[in-house]
Every structure is written in C-alpha cells, then in structure tokens.
Amino acid sequence: MENFPSVSSQSQATLLSIFSQEYQKHIKRTHAKHHTSEAIESYYQRYLNGVGKNGAAPVLLELANEVDYAPSLMARIILERFLQEHEETPPSKSVINSMLRDPSQIPDGVLANQVYQCVVNDCCYGPLVDCIKHAIGHEHEVLLRDLLLEKNLSFLDEDQLRAKGYDKTPDFILQVPVAVEGHIIHWIESKASFGDECSHHAYLHDQFWSYWNRFGPGLVIYWYGFIQELDCNRDRGILLKACFPTDIVTLCHGVA
Amino acid sequence: MAAVLESLLREEVSVAAAVRWIARSAQSSEDDPGEAAALSPLRPLRKEFVPFLLNFLREQSSRVLPQGPPTPAKAPGSSAALPGRPGGPPRGSRGARSQLFPPTQLPSPAAEVPSARRGGRRRGPGPARERGGRGPAGLEEGAGGEGLPWAASRRPRGSGSPGSPSLARSDPPNLSNLEEFPPVGSVPLGPAGRTKPSRRINPTPVSEERSLSKPKTCFTSPPINCVPSSQPSVLDTSPWGHGLPPGCRSLQEEREMLRKERSKQLQQSPTPACPTPESGSPLPSRIGNLTAEPADPAGVSSHRRLELVALIYSSCLAENLVPNLFLELFFILQLLTARRMVAVKDSDLEPSPGALDSLESPLFQSVHDCVFFAVQVLEHQFQVLSCLDKGTLKLLAENERLLCFSPALQGRLQAAYESSVAKVSLAMPPSAQAVSFQPETDNRANFSSDRAFHTFKKQRDVFYEVLREWEDHHEQPGWDFEKGLGSRIRAMMGQLSAACSHSHFVRLFQKQLLQMCQSPGGAGGPVLGEAPDVLSMLGADKLGRLRRLQERLVAPQSSGGPCPPPTFPGCQGFFRDFILSASSFQFNQHLMDSLSLKIRELNGLALPQPEPSDEDGESDVDWQGERRQFAVVLLSLRLLAKFLGFVAFLPYRGPEPPPTRELQDSILALRSQVPPALDVLALLQQGLRARRAVLTVPWLVEFLSLADHIVPMLDYYRSVFTLLLHLHRSLVLSKEGEGEMCFLNKLLLLAVLGWLFQIPTVPEDLFFLEEGQLEAFEVDTVASEHGLDGMPVVDQHLLYTCCPYIGELRKLLASWVSGSSARSGGFVRKITPTTTTSLGAQPPRTTQGLQAQLAQAFFHNQPPSLRRTVEFVAERIGSNCVKHIKATLVADLVRQAESLLQEQLVMQGQEGGDPAQLLESLCSQLCPHGAQALTQGREFCQKKSPGAVRALLPEETPAAVLSSAEHIAVGLATEKACAWLSANITALIRREVKAAVSRLLRAQGPEPAARGERRGCSRACEHHAPLPSHLISEIKDVLSLAAGPRDPEEGVSPEHLEQLLGQLGQMLQCRQFLCPPAEQHLAKCSVELASLLGPPAQHQLDRGQARRLLHMLLSLWKDNFQVPVPLQLLLSPRNVGLLADTRPREWDLLLFLLRELVEKGLMGQTEIEACLGSLREAQWPGDFSEELATLFNLFLAEPHVPEPQLRACELVQPNRGTVLAQS
Predict the structure, then answer these.
(1) A167 and B442 in contact by Cβ < 8 A?
(2) How far is B460 from chain A (nearest CA, A)?
(3) Confidence band, pLDDT 50/70/90 cuts, at residue B743
(4) Which residues contact B1067 (CB under 8 A, 6 or more apart)?
(5) At B811, is the secondary structure helix, strand, or coil?
(6) Second label for B90, Cα 20 to 30 Å away, from A90, B139, B353, B578?
(7) Which residues from chain A sit within 8 angstroms of residue B1098, using beta carbons?
(8) Which InterPro entries match (chain A) (predicted)?
C-alpha cells in the first residue's frame, strides 16, 4: 500500500507515536497539579486578565504553554470554570465535550475563539487529535482487513461480533485459526501505535488477555513497532508483530 | 485364628474349605464333615481370619523387608526396631495374637513397648493414620494448610487402640519428624506432588520412629475391639457402636494357649540366615548400597508350609476377602525383591524340626522363603499380572529370582510382555485454555441487566488473571495462594450479587475445571491433572539417581505408595484453593448444584453400545471411539465428583473425628437430618441395576474419598458403603462368562474400591465388619442384560489413568533392578478400577407412542453406529434449523422492524418517543409472523436431514434401512426444532427486535451514515488517495495557522489549499480507509475552512481564488460527503464574528456562498433565513449589526438568482470590498 508510510516515514511515524506517548505520560503525571482549585482559580484569573486586555491575543494558548500543559486540556479547565460561573448547574461532561468539539456553542464569543485556538493548536489532545488517532487506527484496521481478504482468511470483524453480543471484541476473529510462526492464532488486533511498555501493559490488561480469556491465543500487530522484550507471552498465547505476518500456516483439508 | 491357620498347615482342613468358611458364613454341602467340625467351633472368629492372616504375613516378613522398600500393609520397620526381638514380637494389646511368636522375655513391660508399636503398624494403615497430621498437608498440597482438616490420626474407635498404652510410654519424637517419617502419602513420588495422607497401605520406611505412630488397625478392627485395653473408653467406641464381637473371648484364650505352647519351644527357633545386627538401625539412609542376598530355591526351609500359606492367601485374594488387591500385590513384590534377612538373635525363633508345620516357627526364615512364597502367590495371580503395563511385565519377566524359582511363570510373563501392546503413555501436561465465549449463553440477553453483564465481563477477566498468576507462581517456593490471590478472589466474588451472575460464574468455573484438568481424549489419553510420570518412562538404572534428584528438587515430597490419599494434583489445586479462598457460601451452593447436575447428566449419558465384535477390523475402529468416549465421560465424572465431594463435605471436615461418643452421637443425629448433596445411593443402586457400575462406582469413590469422618457412620452413607462392599466381594476375577463383568472392568473397580477402603476417613474396620450380610447381595440386573459392565470399556490406559498407584508396582521392581530403593521404599499408590460402558444404553424416552417404539425397534437390530448417526444428524439439523430461522425469518423481521422504526422516527422527529412503547408496537406487529417459523423449520429439516444421513452412513446400507433412517432423522430433527421454535420464537423475535431497536436508537445521533450502504470506490480504484488521518491532520494545521497565533511569514498559500481540497475530493471518492467519525470531522473542518476564506487578513487569496476554493468546497459538500455537513456553522455567531474583527469586512463571499448553498440544495432558503435571523439577535458592534441586516435583506431580496450578485455587497460597502480585492 503505497499510501502507507515507507520505511523512512515509518520511522518518523514511530517517533511521533513515541513522542505522543511520552507527552501523554508527562501530562498524566502533572494532571493533578493543574487541577487543584488554587491552580484553576489562578489560571482563570490570568485568562480573564489577558482577554480583558486583548481578546484577540492567544491568551489561553500562551497560558497553557507557559505552565506546560496541553492547550486543549487548559481550554477545558477554563471552560468548565467559566460555565460554573455563568450557569446555575455545573456543566455536564457531555456539554463540555460538545463545546470543545464545536466551540461555536460556547456562549462567550471570546472564549469560543480562545478555545478553538487551543484545540487546533494542540498536537496531542483535543477532539481533532482524537479524531486523527481514531482515523489512523481505522485505516490500519482496513489495511489489515484487506490483507486478510487477500490471504483468503475468513474472519468476523468487530461489528459482527458486537452484533452477536460478544462482550469483548478484538478487531478480527478468524473463523478458522491459523498458525503464525508456529503459534496458533484465533484473533488479530491492530494497534496503530508504538508498543511501549506502559501502553502494552494497559492493553494486555484491558484487551489482549480478555481476548485470550474468550477466544484463545491471538496476534497483536503494532504497526509502528514495539519494544522487543514485550513479546514474551508467545507461549501463553499473545504474539506481537510489527507487520502483517508472512509465515502463516493454514489448516489443510484432507490432502490425500 | 491362629488355630485355624494351624489346622490348615497341618492339613486338617483343606484350603478350599477354609476359604469357603471364610467367604460364606453358612456351611456348604461341599464341606467335609470333619473339616466342618474342625471349623465350626471357631465360627465367631470367622471374620477375623483374613485380618489375622494379613497381619500374620506382615509380621512374618518384618525381618526381611526392613531393608527393602517398606511393606505397604505393615510397617516393616517396626519389627526391625525391636531390640532383640526380631522374630515375631507380640502385638501389644492384641495379646494372644502376638504370642504366636512369643518373645523370650515376653511379659515384661519392656517387651511390651515394641509390641505395642508393632500393633500399630501392623496394617499399613496404622502408620498412615498417624500421619494423619500430614494428611492435611497432603490434601492441601502445601497451600498453606489452611483449612482442610483432614482427619488425621486415629479415630476414636476402640479398634485402633491396641498400642496406645505403650504409646504413651514410648518416646514420641518421630511422628513429628516428617522428613524422617513422611506421612505415607507424602513421599515424593513424582512431579505431581501428590502428597496425601494415605492410610493404610502406605509403605513405610523402616525405622524406629515408626513405632511411635499410633497403631492403626486397619484390617483388624473387630478383634481389636475385644482386646481389653487399658485405654479409656474413647478407644472403645467402635465406629458403629458395636460392642465387643462375640469372638473376642475365645481369641484371648487362644492367644494365651498359644503363648504357653510357644514358650515351650522357645529356644529352638532357627538361626536367621544373615545374622547382621542391624535390627536397631533402620534409618532411611540405610537402603542405598545394600546388596541383595541371592535367593536360591534350594534354601527354602519348608516348601509345604509356604505353599499352603500361599494357597490360602491367594484364595483370599481371589475371593476379594482382602480390602485392597493391589496393596497385597505390592507386598508380594516386596517379598520378591527382599534384599536380606535382618539379623535375629540366635536365641529367638529357632524352630524345632517338629514345629515346622505349625505357627511356632517363623514362616519366612530366609530370603529364599520369601521369594519362594512370593513366586507361589504370583503364580496364582498371573491373570492380574498379565494386565499390568508393559514396563511392569518386562521387569517381572526379567527378574532373575522369578526365573530361578519358577521358570514356567517367567515364561508366561515373558509371553505376556511380548504380546502386550498396551502402553501407558505419558500424559501431556494440561495447559490452560480459556473457556470460549459463546454468544448463545454469554451475551447480554443472558443477563438481567447491563450492569450484571458488564460485571460478569470483568469477573471473567479477573478469574483468568488470577489463574495466570497462579500458573506463574504456584511452583515458586514461598508463594502462597491465599496471600497472593485471596483478597482479589473475594473482591471479585463480592461483586457477584445476582443469583444469575453466580450461575454464570459457576458455569465458567466448571467448564474451566473440566477443560484444564482433563486433557482432551486424544492420543495422549486423558489424565486428570496427574503430572506425567517421568519415572516410569525411564530405564530402571536411572531411576535411583533421578529419584534422588527429584527428592532434592521437590520440597514437599509427594509419596505415592500403593494407597495415596486423595489429592488435587496440578491444576486441580488451583480450583480447590480458589474455592477455599473465595469462601463464598453462594458460590459453593451454586457450584454444588451445577456439579450435581452435570454428574447426573454424564452418569445417565446413553453411552454408545459397542458393535457386536463379529465383524472385522472396522468394528474395532468404532470401538476405539467408544472406549475413548467412555474414558472421557468417566474421567470427567471422577473430576466433578471429587470436587462435589470436596465442596459438599467442606463444612464438616475437621482435623479429627469427634473426641467422645456423646459428641459423635449428637453430630450424627444432626447430620442425619441433612439431605445428601447428591443422591448417590440412588445413583449407585441404579448403576448396579443397569449394570453400569463400571461408570458409576469410580466417580462415587472419588466423591466418598473426600468425605469427613462422620459420613461413613451416617445411615445413608453406610448403605452406600455396604453396597460397595458387596460389590467388591462380588467382583471375583476368576469368574468369567455370560453376564459377568469384563476382567479389566472388575480390576478397575477392585482397584478404586481398594483404594477407598484405605482412605483415612473410612473406618478401617468397615471392610471386615460388613461381612455378615454379604450373602444378601443380589443385584437385580435382569432389566438390562447388556450393561456397560459387560463391555470391554476399560483398557489398560484407563486403568492406569484412574489408578496411577498401580504404577508403584513397576517402580518397586525398577528400584530392585537399579539396586537402590529410594528411602521411601516402595511406592504404592491407589488403584482405581475402571468400568466398562454398557452395551445397551437405553435411548432417551423422549419420543412417545407407537412411532417411537417402531423407531426403537428399527434401531434394535441395526449396528449402534446407525442410531448414533441418526441421533447426531437429528440433533445437529434441529439445531441448525433454529439457527437458520434466526438468520432468515427473524433477521427479516428485524429488518422490517428497523425500517418501521425509521419511519416512525421520521414521523415523530428525531426524538422517536418512548423506546419501550416503540418496541411494544413493533413486536405486536411482527411477532405474529413467527408462526411461519414452524413451517419453515419443517421444510428445512426435511430438506437437510436425508443428505446428512446418507453422507454419514456406509454406502452399502440397504435402501430400505437408509430411507427409514432418513425418515427418522427428519422426524427427530423436526421434533427438536419445532419444539424449540414453538416455545421460543416469540421471545426470540422480541429479543432480536429489542436489540435492534436499542442499537438503532443509540446509533441515532452520531453516525447515521454508518448504517447505510457505504458507497465505496470503484473496483478499479487502487486506493491511492491520501489517508483521512493525513488530511485531517493537514487541515488542522491550516486551521491552526488561521486561528493563530502565527509568525508573520507563516501563511497558507492558495495552491496548498487547492491541493488539499483536491486530495479531500479524491479521498472522499475512494473512501477505502474512511470511517464515519473521520468523515464527520472532515466535514466540520471543511466548513470551518470555508468560513476562514471570508476574513481577508488570514490568507493571501484574491477573490477569484477564494471563489474557486468555495466552488470546490461546495462540490465536495454536495457530491462527496456522505455524512451531513454542518453547514449551519457557517452562520454561527463565532464564524460570522470572525468577520467582525476584520477591517474591511468582506461580505460578498459569504453572500455568494449562501446563494450557492441554496442553489445546490445544500441548505434551504428558510433554514438560512432562520440562521440569519438568530444571528441578528446576538450582541454585535453597532456597525456590524447594520451590515448584517443589510446582508439579510440582500439575501431575502434575491432568493433565486442563479448567479450571485457580488456587486450587491460592494454596493453596500464599496470601499471595503475593493480593499479586499487589492490586498
């Protein structure tokens, strides 16, 4: 697939993925510090002062950069605070999310622009970035589906599984298991990210083992690579690859 | 007793008569009147004879076996330990008996100590019980010993007490030393780590310590009861509350007489062959380098006497008068492999020549005697031996002593070895495989609420997480199940609030149990959690080394022995510990319910009838399958029953039996009120009646093996034991012929029952007590002539799988070859007999009426595979039929429901109304259509079944048979399918419609397009368009530049924008990688892009470029986006407000855009008017409001002008418009 990254851009994408993961770890670590009531109050006052002086200046964005916090998340803090002040009832999460997705719903024009600016300038958080990530994930699933079709491996995809009422659904369940590098594979999960220790363990706990618990051993493809040492559960039924496997053995039907 | 034996030895009574006398209480006509006369006065002693004989032999052999592996039934060490009294030490309180070989200093207290010890040991069980303390360890397998109070040491039975007085005196150190005196069950046998408190038959290492163990009189209970014991009454309480047996008085007298008799001949006993003064040092380490004394037939002291004893002993074995056949075989093999005779004081036991035929001289005076005796017995047991595995046969056939003493037997064994094909294969260690998720039972529809569903989802994951952790850690030293996992398990169990969740979890648990603890019945054969017996796979020469290595490696050594206590080897340990840690009453109850149900189901399973074996190899092929199926069912049953027993008796299990009679009585009164967890008595009776004992008894034994001490005393279970005892007695191996059980079936039953009789919680005297009613045992088996019992369903592999302890025989022989026996000596484990499947499994009586009877009759004379095929086809087609109806009729109805719903939604607006109401109205419209299901189902079965039957039956099946079979299959399939459909179709439709409705309602908002047929790209497309993620990312960059902040030199070139929009167009046409959320975002971003084209300061566009770009966007919106484009955003205050900050304001592009939107039908005139109207309500700077009003008016004024009036704006704001143009 030519439109998928070549080797060099692959490594660039890998680097981006790693960067994004590291940044997210950083944000997670500092999240609490930005959510104390004192911090929120101080950010809000600085915001008010800033826009009071010049509503067109990138007040919120600069504030976020200054305190080393993700602009979208800073926008959320201020928006929440703002709504608290202006509405009787505290805003629900879904209202906030919807306003972040579409700032024109924000009753204050200046704030709407500030929030919008934060959202479009944030490289790791925010609805747009989420959408990009989601799109990347989807694109790789499509890629994987095509490869499966190409290899004539019949499968059930996530939607079909969900429709049948499965409680946990990998991207694909093979209707007839195959062997990859000597390991039996019942399902394949596509991950359009770099497999680092932290995310892999989270995935193991939330997804991969759950799949194993229901469907047996399977394969995870980290399209942007992974830390080799993480591929240590092969014998237990979780195989890691950075690309679609080439060594696939299928069940032969009675060769006589 | 001794008198009886003596009269036998003197040949006053024939062996046959004696055995008749023992086995049947009544005299038979065959009896010689003289013999009868000789025996009749001894009648009260009748049932004591066998225990006496067994103990006698153990005692007699005690000088031989201390060196070798311990004798199972009797602690060989005890005699060795006797200072100066090697021969036949008196058994403590047993008084009279012990005097068979009166010690020189007999009555002195000093002498009594040893004798007391002896008494304890004498039946293997003694030591085992002692080890009762270990028992728990065994069961728990080192899992922290929490809980399972295995009944340890002795029971309050009087019978056990003989040694007790002396016990008190003897120094009590050794018992606690588990290293030195591993509980019988705890000898490290193999990797399986089966440590169990086995009772009676444990091979005990010879050592002084043994003598400390409390005497457990396993076989001998009745006689023991009558011994006047100095112990308090505790010991007197017989388990069943019986008083002293009538014979006890005479027994004592007898003993007294014998003692006197003996003292006369005292000094004449023969000198032992090897007077090595070793007697006092029977330490575990001793065995290693002892070389065996050669055995020579010429050295046998008294052929006749040994022959006679061997004969009577063998006859007892043949009549199943001994509790455990394999234990006796083990003992015999120990004699065969005895290394040398322990030194005896010269003064002892010198037999006078005249005493040779009496009991006054030792039976075994040398190794030669032992070997001679053993070979004699083995000759009688050839039939059993020939069923042993190839390895054992080889070792036997190659045994030089055997060759030397009986070349004929050796020849037969060699032949048996050569013809033996069966091989006990190594089981693959079971690996954890998860229970697969099955939508039919596991999806949301099976739960009461979303919450329950999601909770169970999490629980499944926690369960496996715990399991994986256990797999990783349980073999690490110091790891503790409860500490490591207990709290997590309890937290998880705590979430199982609803009863329905419990049943889901229990189902998962039980399935996982079966899956993990029973490897699939493939070539490797099913082995219930037993670790592979590596030892048996190795050559004998390596055994010693390997075993020592193992001893070092495996900390808690598991010793098998011929009668290991019940354990939970391998993965079973996880499930046991899980139950213990969960300690949830609800869970246990659900588990018991579920296990009971499954046991009933499997026990009642109509196992296939084997084909009559008249045909050639082909029936053999079938037969393999049937055997395998039988084995799978049997092993599953055993596993389930074991866990049922474990859970059911868990609350009652305690370390010891109740200390006093009163307490015991009150417990009994209480417990007798409690209904059994599973009506095993009824099942056993049914099993016997239907001749399915071979299936029922093995699992029942597993169940009972986990019972607590009280259980055998309860009337209900007492009846079960009585039945089992009767069955045991009736399994005479030599009987063959019509109506008899197959040989291996019997052997399996004998092995498992023998093992059960040795379990610590089973009263040791039970076996001999019940004898009285044996004659009454007549099972009415007329009903089913072809029960499983008569079918060769048990093969050697199954026998060894169920009874791994039979392998101890091989190990014993192997250790003889290797010249070293492990310190634990012999290894004997329990033997579980297996049963055969019955021929005539009655078909389930589901179909009634004449047709059904005809169908039954039809099958009667056909090969069983025909019925199986038809039933299978019917079952599958019926089930497929239901699935087919679901996929066609029901799916159609669901589609109808969806479109009806769509209509309704359109009618009622997006809100839709109350979902419950909607659902009701849909269902009332659609459910009546369910009636078609029956017609369609019938058609389906009619269409599909015949082909399937035809494909599965042999080509040569006669046409008439074939067509009947097809017919029946159609009928059965239809019956099955229609029964299900008529009962469930309405509910099914409801459920599916409901699911569809909620899916639809949920999907309502965000992605309506996702459901529709997606317009994909053409087949020729090679999907070269840029990826959606890439485009979103690019557009985001543009937007961020537009939204600022940016450096002065930064900007977006029109070319770049044009390219971007071009790519967007390509991508939207290809759509290969596009998902609805991405498309929605792209649509929104494209609108934002459009509104940014207006404000002039943000890009370097001239009007023409801007308009071209807008045209591109308009065409994308119109032709390429398949999701709704949020065009109203163009007129959102925020986007319009962007204009407010710019000078000069640029309105013409906006007006152009609005006109084009209407023109292209992307937005309605009224919609735009509404937006503009609401725009005007917002707060704007004064001049801006004015311009806005003008725009509004302009738009209203020229609603349908095809070419937008650009000038209009300029007319209003001429200078500003030009400014833009110039910029």
Answers:
(1) yes
(2) 7
(3) confident
(4) B1025, B1026, B1027, B1028, B1031, B1074
(5) helix
(6) B353
(7) none
(8) CDIN1
